[in-house]
Amino acid sequence: MNRGCFSVAVLILLVSTSRAQFHSVGVANCDGCHSMHASEDGASLDPLAPIGWAYLLKFGNATDTCLECHATDHGSILAPDPLLPPPELGAGNFTFLFEDNLNDARDGATNPIGGNHAGHNVSSLRHGIPLEPLALVAPGGSYASSELSCTSCHDPHGNENYRHLYGANEEVAGGYVFLYDAPVGDGLPLAGGSESPSSHTAYRSGWSQWCANCHGMYHDGGLADFEHPVDETLGSDHGEAYNQYAGGGNPTGGDFATAYLPEVALEDGAASAASSDGATAVSRISCMSCHRAHASSGPSIGRWDFNVRYLNEDGAASGSYPLPNPYPGPDQRQLCVKCHYPDVMSHGQGQACIECHAGSGPGDPPVVPPVPSG
């Protein structure tokens, strides 16, 4: 190889390697996020901060900086219009924080639930995401909401964990130290298509414990009025129900090979992102079974709207983005029935499950009083 060809080859290698290693451990592309002197050629990098930002960041706080690349590309986690979200990749989209009403219960039009209830309020001056206005700390824990940013969960300098999530004994934004290890999983490519039963995040282990770094075992530790297991195997009855349920029109006709539903995600050590297999003897329910990680068009980051009776009611009262119905037919009940169909056959017809099964504790979905009969 002559010297010219060698130089071109090295240049191509460096460019391709730098893209792959932007967040690589210890070899990150520093000047992608930081400026050595908070300016270039004597001019401010950002008119919002003439003297530069903390940590010599180029774009405001940590969330602003992350969103420079990830808002509408590399995952597209902040679409500009909450009614036109990008393809769902598993974690949800922060665009729903911009909604003015998420409440699709029967009183939804007159009792709005603001977008701050859609997910984690990662404050961004440049993109207009305000601080969490109500909860000063994480529900169930002590992490200050004023410190919440992308780097509360993800290590911007990279590590070997799934999605660069922090692990045990690591200090995150605000000086908070995690107790539990990073979870194990496998996700979709950031430039890929939307999730489906055969293409989805594979949650393998440790997800509820990892969420407990900030929230404790919120719904299974006496911390919320709504109690539900958050880190247990489904058991034979609920596992069988999960595998058999194939929608309201075919509630017992499903089979194991096609039973998986990303809207009701399972944790399983053998999970594959490309598998549509349903529940096994070791499949677990976790926080991720009912919640997204970023934000959702359902209150409390729900994978479905916990306030509706039927999925086709989502978006009707609030005008918010209707979360897609994964099953055919208009009379599909909310997705609690994926595991609980045998339990609900004799009660609760025409009601959202939380109308009877949830209180009104901090962080719980709002409870809608039943409509009187007669």
Key structural traits:
374 residues, mainly alpha, two-stranded antiparallel ribbon, 7 helices, 17% helix, globular
Structural class estimated from helices and strands: mainly alpha
Low-confidence stretches: 1-20, 360-374
User: Helical region count?
Assistant: 7
Question: What's the overall geometry?
Answer: globular
- List the helices and strands in order: HEEHEEHEHEHHH
- Please give the largest β-sheet: 2 strands, antiparallel
Tell me the number of strands: 6
What's the pLDDT, averaged over the residues?
Answer: 86
Strand order of the largest sheet: 1-2
Rg over CA atoms, rounded to whole Å, is 22 Å
Kindly state the percentage of residues in helix: 10-25%
Describe the structure.
The protein has 374 residues and is mainly α. Helix content is 17%, strand content 4%. It has seven helices and six strands, in the order H-E-E-H-E-E-H-E-H-E-H-H-H. The strands form three sheets. A two-stranded antiparallel sheet has the order 1-2. Strands 3-4 form a two-stranded antiparallel sheet. Strand 1 and strand 2 form a beta hairpin. Helix 4 packs across helix 6. The chain starts with a helix and ends in a 17-residue tail after the last helix. The N terminus and C terminus are likely disordered.
